[in-house]
């Protein structure tokens, strides 16, 4: 890069090839283009406006090589720190600048992060069924695709909609298109009666060699979480995810006191500071922060470094509601970070693969970021423009008595 190279243009692209994504494009005066992901499910336009109105004008003229300084500038400069919208915007800029740095150096980003510490990144995907036989079929189908780690979610008798359970052949997509969120009915007692048996059936079906995971999606009290943890100990889960809403992290102590089931938390966290207590007090085993929502490659690495001190590993969020740019970025961290354990991989619909052309690949239960310079994901802008934004929201949940609960 010539020393006079600066950021010439910053563009925000909102596209909906089956679901909404926000892509950030940074172009340098030398004509190098970097891509970032700025997708925040159900609040996409807030991040797009933050980037367009408040970040893009500040970036033009800056040195694209100063990735860390730009992170600090946007984080400290906002004064109103943290939060999903700000941190997703910063994450997108960070990923795009790493992409540029890699392209200028002619190296994949993982090489700039110190090089590979493993040959490939273990991934897990989702299996889902309304009843146990359907769930076991779904687990079998994912194993046939090569997955050695599978998240299992089942329907609950008496409930018409359950987090993580899909109807039909398409992948699970919780955000519903339309001007308002769908209202789901939730019954924790029914879930607690059913889930341990379904998980035990899955373990019996697959035998000891397959890693099984389960996501509670923030729905239990600490007491309920402790009971569930105990009830599933013999299932030998790889992790039990988001057992309680993690705003109050003290409550996890109660869960820890009663069960050794490995706990994973963090997909809704945005900075190292939300992870700090969980890590330093060893209240979790896996931290789940997402490269997009937690400040990009630079900040995910920082969280990993703190976690490493406490022998806690990374298992980043990788739903289909962050774009293939995010997955690519996460995989560069995964390949180069010693305490990276596993990457969630839900997969994408066919149109998404066309709009986001990616060097990362899946084979045999593992992902690899690819060896092209940068992050390795390019956006087909002409195709993206053919899929305009469509309002879509995550569901909300009410108990049987009509009161709101956590979705
Ligand atoms: C989830 C997500 O992948 C997961 O573990 O908890 O599916 C989450 O519900 C969505 O990302 C919400 O947008
Ligand atoms: Mg989750």
Any overview of this molecule?
With 407 residues, this protein is an alpha/beta fold. It has 2 domains: 7-107, Enolase-like, domain 1 (2-Layer Sandwich), CATH 3.30.390; 112-375, Alpha-Beta Barrel (TIM Barrel). It has helices at 44-59, 67-77, 84-105, 109-112, 132-144, 188-206, 222-231, 252-258, 272-280, 296-309, 324-336, 350-355, 381-384, and strands spanning 7-15, 21-28, 33-37, 121-129, 149-154, 176-177, 183-186, 211-215, 239-241, 263-265, 286-287, 313-314, 343-344, 356-358, 361-363, 366-368, 377-379, 392-393, 396-399, 404-405. The strands form 5 sheets. Strands 4, 5, 8, 9, 10, 11, 12, 13, 15 and 16 form a 10-stranded mixed β-sheet that branches. It has a 3-stranded antiparallel β-sheet with strand order 1-2-3. The longest helix has 22 residues, at 84-105. It starts with 6 loop residues before the first strand and ends with a strand. The mean pLDDT is 96. Bound molecules: D-mannonic acid and magnesium ion. Residues 215, 217, 241-242, 267 line the site of magnesium ion (MG).
